[in-house]
């Protein structure tokens, strides 16, 4: 090739690369938007106390984590196609008119509200009001219509680690910065962040945390967490896009979205419960701790 043609070739390659980079791993999918209300001042923990594993075999998962402690899985699945389908623009184009069911963001998630997905995204997906109670905050997570949203969910690859006698069921959600679910527990499962970041707080089953079921995780972090002695602190870590947290059976957990986040959980329900349901259920198996 003539020497003088090379700069033109580089320019053409660079131009082609720009759109690819803007949809790359760091892009926010259009979910981070300037809007009314300052984002809640929520930050990552000083020290992540949950192990991160990029090389975990199924045998080691079962032996070290499945029944005993949480772990963050890295690089097990490639959900880049699913991620591309979850941009704000694409989800609105595909599902804007679909009715979604919101739950109150308190421990027992008692109340439900149905509204079009577009209305949720355009009017309700804002940073958490720090003084609102959890039972006055609506959260889009679970209760998904798997028939209507099948064209999306069939592109999700769940973590390839199953537990004997359990059946996976998805719960998909999108929520604003500072929102989250207060402490509760249920069966084991995985939670993957697609866009944004999610901070997790976890306690083993025998260590019931100090919390109020109608207070938000944001309020708990502000009011209760700072007074905890080091030994009373939960395990905690912020999950980045593409990472998957595994939580074992009956572990207490609370979540806090640090950004507007898109996320999906894979709950591992026991077969007795799964057999009683014709459709995959979005509701985690919950005990007296809620869920
Ligand atoms: O992702 C969230 O914010 C809630 C997750 C949760 O509480 C759960 O998976 O049980």
TrEMBL record:
Single GO biological process annotation from the record? positive regulation of canonical NF-kappaB signal transduction
Leader sequence residues: 1-24
Which Gene Ontology MF annotations are present? cis-regulatory region sequence-specific DNA binding
Record-linked InterPro entries: Cupin_8, JmjC_dom, JMJD6_ArgDemeth/LysHydrox
- Keyword 4Fe-4S on entry: no
Source superkingdom: Eukaryota
Q: Which GO terms describe its cellular component?
A: endoplasmic reticulum lumen; nucleus
Task: Return the Pfam families for the record.
Answer: Cupin_8
Subcellular location(s): the record lists: Cytoplasm; Endoplasmic reticulum lumen
Q: Which residues form the JmjC domain?
A: 136-285
Q: Does the keyword Glycoprotein apply?
A: yes
Q: What are the UniProt keywords, alphabetically? A: Cytoplasm, Endoplasmic reticulum, Glycoprotein, Signal
| Assembly information from the UniProt record | Oligomer. Dimer. Interacts with PKM; regulates angiogenesis and metabolism.
Question: What's the protein here called?
Answer: JmjC domain-containing protein 8
Native organism: Bos indicus x Bos taurus
